[in-house]
Write a structure and sequence with these properties.
It is a single chain. The chain is an alpha+beta fold and 247 residues long. It folds into two domains: 169 residues, no CATH class; 54 residues, no CATH class. It is 25% helix and 12% strand. The protein contains seven helices and seven strands. The chain has a three-stranded antiparallel β-sheet. The longest helix is centred in the middle third of the chain and has 14 residues. It is globular.
């Protein structure tokens, strides 16, 4: 899988990342349990307790990154093995909103999401394996998950990242993760970040990304958009019917 991945040694050129571009946590199958709850249920080593529709209270979990054992669900984060910001600069900057949501809530590959200690998740942050690794005994599992996620979602790697992944795999006796099926990735020209200058609305001739909500668009310095003037107007709901959105 690693050998098939395209190299991009300028990932930082793909700017414009906003966490809200990745919708969390959804209930894709409509069973009342969102993605966080589904991961906690799948990874517990003991019976869980819950309240409400599906809020998990207790169980037994081992945090891969630091080998800590936890029984209170609130002490755990659900970690994206490949962080959202890493996914963005590795290819998700091109995706449409639905694909980003599917990535952020990927229950189709067991390697993608992990219940880990909040402390280890904060330590990891948005770093890649060239900048951060879990405890020694977890590194083979971790890099195989990382490779699996990037392979599944057709994401790029950079040269430093590939060097570390390759070197770590040399010391791994067995494959601990299955080869995932490829995810269907849909790109959208509206999702590619607009230039820093221009693109703010009012007939400037530059099509901005579809930010999903006016809140995100405005936080990115975009808008207002006027009906009949800016094509971006169609991306948002004109609640007050005044012919202007994101004002």
């Amino acid at each position: 899988m690693l050998a098939t991945m395209p190299i991009d040694d300028q990932p930082e050129s793909h700017t414009g990342y906003v966490r809200d571009f990745f919708a969390l946590w959804s209930d894709a199958n409509g069973n009342g349990c969102n993605t966080r709850a589904e991961v906690l249920i799948a990874q517990t080593l003991a019976a869980i307790t819950r309240h409400g529709s599906c809020t998990i209270d207790s169980g037994s979990w081992v945090s891969l990154y630091d080998n800590g054992t936890f029984t209170v669900a609130g002490d755990l984060d659900i970690d994206h093995v490949v962080p959202l910001s890493e996914a963005w600069k590795s290819g998700a900057w091109q995706w449409d909103a639905a694909t980003r949501e599917q990535f952020a809530n990927d229950l189709g590959y067991s390697g993608a999401l992990l219940a880990v200690s909040a402390r280890s998740n904060r330590s990891k942050g948005d770093k890649d394996p060239a900048a951060w690794m879990p405890i020694a005994g977890a590194q083979c599992d971790y890099v195989q998950r990382w490779i699996g996620v990037k392979f599944r979602w057709s994401l790029t790697i950079d040269s430093a990242e590939k060097t570390v992944l390759s070197a770590t795999l040399v010391g791994c006796a067995v494959a601990s993760q299955p080869v995932p099926t490829k995810a269907i990735v849909t790109t959208s020209s509206n999702q590619i970040p607009a230039p820093v200058t221009g693109g703010n609305g009012s007939g400037d001739g530059v099509i901005d990304p579809d930010y999903g909500t006016c809140k995100v668009a405005k936080a990115s310095g975009r808008g207002p958009y006027i009906n009949g003037v800016d094509p971006e107007y169609a991306f948002y709901r004109d609640g007050d019917k005044d012919g202007m959105v994101c004002e």
